[in-house]
Amino acid sequence: MGTCVRDGWVLPLVDESTWPVSFRITLYSLGLLWFLVAEAVTVTAPLTAIEVLTSLTKTKRVISDPDNPECLEEISVRRWNLAVANLTLIAFGTCTPKILLATMEIIGSEFYTGELGVATIVGSSAFSLLFVTGVSIMATPSGKTRYIKKAKPYFIVVLVFSLFAYLWIFLILEIISPKKIELWEACLTLALYPVLVILVYVIDSWSQRKKITTIGKLFKAGKDYIKTATADVNAANIIRIMKGLGANPKQRLTAEEIAAYATLEAQKDIPRSAAWYRVSATRNASGGQRLVPKVNPLPKKEKIFDTITAGALQDKPAVFKSVVEFSSKSYSVLEKDERVSLKIVRSGNTQRQVLFRYKTIDGTAKSGSDFTRGNGVLVFRPGECDIKLDIDILDNKQWEEKETFYVQLSPNHPDDPVLIGNNDLAAVTIIDDDHPGVLEFSQSVYFFEESVGTAELCVVRKHGSRGRISVTWKTVDKTAIGGKDYESKEGEIVFEDGETEKSLGIVIYDDQKYELNEFFAVKLSTAQGGACVGGVSKASVTIMNDDEYKNLVDKVVLLTRVNIDRLKLGTSSWAQQFKEAMSVNGGDTANATPFDYFAHFVSFFWKVVTACVPPPNFLNSRGVITLIIGLCLEGFVVAVMVDMANTFGCLVGLQQSVIAVIFTSTFVSLGTSLPDLIATRMSASSDKYADTSVGVAIGNSAVMVYLGLGLPWVLAASYWTTKDQLFEIQTHTLAFNIPVYCVLALISVTLLKIRRALTVCGQAELGGPTIPKVISGILFVLLWLIFILLSSLYAQEIISFS
Fold first, then answer.
1. Contact present, 302 and 247 (Cβ < 8 Å)
2. Strand 532-533 vs strand 438-441: parallel, antiparallel, or unpaired?
3. CA–CA separation, 123 vs 734, rounded Å?
4. Contact present, 628 and 614 (Cβ < 8 Å)
5. Which residues is 356 bridged to in the sheet?
6. What is the dihedral of CA 629, 632, 636, 638, to 10 degrees?
7. DSSP secondary-structure letter at 298?
8. Residue 250 above 80 pLDDT?
9. 253 to each of 146, 183, 290, 338, 688, how far by Cα in Å?
10. What letter would DSSP give residue 619?
11. What band does 312 get if pLDDT is binned at 50, 70 and 90?
């Protein structure tokens, strides 16, 4: 055994030769566990940068009406092709620890190959394809299925390249140039990676051109349109979510609780990358700020219309109390204006003095950098019906997109004679445009119950908010007749300087008769004050027979948008990073569990270290600086892990090949693949399709070979070529592990194809009826255990292979 003191990348820091062996074993085992936590936490920095980079968008003008080619509308499109992003930045980010491990081992060994890095690549591939896939099959909710949606040519190419990667390694090691790697072989191994990326891009682009997707009125190639969570937060979808909720009738849900469910629901349909799931899984496991809101489970059988009404609308305004609220639900301000004035109005009892509180809430605009944080008490004196609340706006002299923050009103004391009205939350948008604005309806279709009393239609002011402007409007009969079904009228809406949203009210007549749905139209016509009328100049209003709770829906819409803004990845400032790193659940202690506190304590040091990495918006670098510094930090952590693993294996008397197998199947798989396991499990349970759960695992297998082996082998082969020698592969387990993995991988792919074909399995790769999915999941886990068992037996020379 010797003293087991060898110079590594970082360790040993001091002479350990005189230390007791038992003490060193304990120290290194604990150190390995702690650095596994470090690896899981620190990798979130480059992954966050990668998520920001691959989510960059650009504005594109497209035809909004197929019958009128000259009618154009702007939409956001991705700068990155999503399929290419999955195989490049995202795959590189999730595979970074394994690639760094293999590369650093060869460089640190003076360009001699070792067992650790190579076995880590193969072992992690086996863990991802076999064990993780098995867990994903079982993690899919009972009765639900997840199938691979991507075009068949795309998936087949990725699958073939993944399996060929390992067959290619076996061929060059055992047949073409046994136990040696020639320079051309190493270069070809690395070159196959860009070939795969190019093929995937061509196939994905071809398949997208064939499939045209209709998005509202937009007719656009599906690959370009980027769906965001906030795009789905509107009244119609909030009502759908509320109808789908179930609850105990005795339970009272507030608007905030409903918004939490709505936030969770709004994020379900958003396509998420493997990087997003990896960061989310790490935060959940380390007691960090959650990217998915935590809500209490509700029974699914009972509708909660009565619950919602009783809980969120139970405080009806009383005549003896003052009702305080904002005059508008949204405002905008130019960044150069230095402050925004929010008008607060009072109704009800106006003859007494009332106190109430206000506070600002960060959205995409951050306090301290975009506006001055506010939190205080305001006073309505006797006879006052409106007051102004001024919020200072900070001009940072840099161009920025529109940013939003929120201001919320609340009672100063529960016993005060004041009620907060429905407009208790105002959204303030900071813009860089001094145009008077474009006026249009917020949506082209509205639905109201016949008992609504007054139908409120929202008119928004876009692309500027300078000055006082107005627009005229009038109703137009359709199947609903003015004077019989609704109040036929016309009028004018006035927007004061800075106001960006107004409502016009139309009285709906409730005749207490059963009748079919009817509709009429409302049209905007002449705009004054330099403004113009936008594309949505006409709104269709459908009158329905149903109960009323629109005000609640509007409030939930605003609260849901606040939640979504808070949960966006990569929008935190440097100060916020430290604040979130030092707080359990990122400061949300109300929903913290005992495990969150324990995980936060264990990972606290590494969370603070990771917070030292600049945020993606640092120097407007869009994540590039974060990615570079994050990879350097990750490289340091991996270097220490390599040194610890080698010394630990020497101390316990294991062969280097056995160290590789055990290190891969336990420590590396636990440290680098456990967050991947949690992330894939989250993806399987929440995504509509299996592309992220299965497709990314298969794609990462190819990336780990072409980059994880190709890159270090090119470096080593080039080094030995300069010395007129060939790069020799000294590991003896690789020739055995690769064919074993290939056989097991073929079996696993065959099982997935069988599941896709069999009705009893739900005709999908993941999920299905409980018994078949559990059996399938156990089979995949057994395949992984077989790989570990055979690899360990061969490394110990208990079995042989020729």
1. yes
2. parallel
3. 10
4. no
5. 378, 411
6. 120
7. -
8. no
9. 32, 67, 22, 39, 28
10. G
11. very low
